[in-house]
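Morning, I've got a small favour to ask if you have a moment. I've been staring at a protein lately and its backbone has me curious. You're getting the sequence in one-letter code plus the fold written as tokens. I've dropped the whole record in just underneath, so have a look:
=====
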Amino acid sequence: MAKQIIRAGASPTPSPSPACGRGEQKPLPLHPQGVSSPGARRCAATTAGRGRGWGEGKFHRYFWPIILLALLPQLAAHAEVSVKDDLGRKVVLPAPAQRIVSLAPSVTELLYAVGAGSQLVGAVNFSDYPAAAKRLPRVGSYDAIDVEAVAALRPDLVVMWQSGNPAGIRERLEKLGMKVFVGEPRRLEDIPPTLERFGVLAGKEKQGAAAAGAFRQRLDGLRGRYAGRAPVRVFYQIWGSPMVTVNGKHLISDVLGLCGGVNVFADLPVLAPTVGVEAVLAADPDAIVAAGMDSRRPAWLDDWKRWPRMKAVRAGNIFFVDPDIINRHAPRILDGAEQVCGDLERVRGKR
């Protein structure tokens, strides 16, 4: 197990300048505008000939404000930051995170979206967007985290996925002294504030706010376009065997609702439940929307053709969407939403 590294805190306080004519130590008084006080100028004048002291007031007038401005970014970078995660826990960092580990591909995308890609030092498998994410060191998969690999990267922040990462992983990481943010967007409206909080944690507030604003604007546009459309009953299929779907509390169900779709399994109690063929046949959806493992249409999607009397099969309403743009809780989910909305419009057009 990697040893915990204790980082240095604030920089030492600079030594004050000696007072004029005395041995005691006093800071040189400054005018609010950065110009030395009259007394300080007199003191400087008496020491100028000896090559000691601060020099004439011109130094303070012209150069001290410039020095302060140069230091402001460094001071801001060391300011304490604090946000609440999706568990309602307060996550406090002594300064914006400079070494971040992501425990979900969607988290990786969110961090890049706020301009924090250069601060990522590790991620899980399938963190492949944007292209730069493919080069990050791996710390296992989202459902099998290598805790030792995480610790070896010496992160000052770990961002995890509540329902996707293994149970108890947060407690294990925190026992090792790591700061952990737990994320779990359940509605499309949850993604912009997540971007904003990631911006704060990474010291990228402006970028986080800009990314959040762009997401909200596009989401509002889709809502306006598909509001009031006739409902379409949908079975969303994540995988073939076991057959996995989503309930009404899942983010994907919110995407369906954005498009005027009605999740036929919204009332199930589990977030991502398994269902049988009989249950799907009984629900008899108007459309089947399926993802898979990658960008290729899965072969098991055609298995539904065995039941030609199903509404979805009879009308040819079986659709595939790339899982990377629908299953991930990241900005690209609106790409997936736009595709699903278009598919459901085709269903309406066949009625």
About this structure: The chain has three domains: 38-77, 81-212, 229-349. The chain is about 35% helix and 15% strand. The longest strand covers residues 232-237. Residues 229-349 form a domain with the Rossmann fold fold (CATH 3.40.50.1980).
